[in-house]
Amino acid sequence: MTKPLRSENFSLFHDNLDDYTKEIIIEKFYEDGIEAVEDYVIKEDKIEFHLNGKRFLSVMSIAQHQDAHILGFLLSEAVIKSFDDVESIVISEDGLKVEVIANVSEEGYSNLFKEKTLTSGCCVGVTGNAEKIFDCAFINSDYKVHAKDILSNMKLFNTSSKLFDNTGCVHKAELVLEDGTIYVTEDIGRHNAIDKVIGLASMNKKDVKKSVLYATGRLSMEMVVKCVMHKIPIVVSKAAVTFQGIKSANEHGITLVGFARGSKMNVYTHSGRINV
Question: What is the pTM of this model?
Answer without folding.
Answer: 0.86
